[in-house]
Design brief:
The protein contains six helices and ten strands; from the N terminus they run ββββββαβααββααβα. It is α+β, with helices and mostly antiparallel strands. Strand 1 and strand 2 form a beta hairpin.
């Protein structure tokens, strides 16, 4: 299993997980795209469902329009049944996020239909990308304090193999991919 471990000033930790109906839920996009409940990986296997999940995660808590989702998945060549097909990927993701068909309780991760598209509502820290951005900001701050690069790297180490967004990428995932690479 691929995951990112961050060591900050001697403290090692993995991103926060939310308790969901008695289960912990977290998301990983640095390395393999994964949905983790408790310690079980329950990520969708269909490539387009994974790509849909990646887009929703990177834009979580904001509306992702159906047209942006279609553009991400098919670019300029959508299938004739584009709306139905996109809805089937959303349905697959809801089955992963809401096992046994139950509705999300207030404060839990939820995949919500909101015109003109969908919102993946989640808490800060449930996505490894959140922690990565926090740590990267701390690293920049260390370097801006005129500390030499070696000292900053010693205080702020990122360990692990981190191919970012290990899933197919359309136009919507290209810009965030470049940002993390920087």
């Amino acid at each position: 299993m691929s995951f990112m471990t961050l060591i900050i000033g001697g403290y090692a930790g993995i991103h926060r997980r939310q308790r969901m109906g008695g289960q912990l839920l977290s998301f990983r996009i640095l390395g393999s795209l994964e949905v983790v409940q408790e310690d079980a990986v329950c990520t969708p296997t269909a490539p387009k469902a994974r790509q849909t999940l990646a887009l929703l995660l990177l834009r979580s808590n904001h509306i992702v329009s159906t047209s942006a989702l279609v553009d991400e998945l098919w670019g300029d060549n959508p299938p004739p049944t584009v709306v139905t097909t996109a809805q089937s990927y959303i349905y697959q993701l809801r089955k992963v996020l809401h096992p046994r068909g139950r509705q999300a309780a207030p404060g839990e991760v939820a995949l919500i239909t909101r015109s003109p598209g969908y919102v993946l509502a989640r808490h800060e820290g449930q996505l490894d990308h959140d922690l990565f951005l926090q740590v990267a900001g701390q690293g920049r701050a260390l370097l801006e304090q005129d500390q030499d690069k070696t000292s900053a790297c010693e205080r702020l180490c990122i360990q692990g193999d981190m191919p970012v967004f290990a899933c197919a990428r359309g136009r919507g995932l290209q810009a965030p991919h470049r940002k993390v690479d920087e």
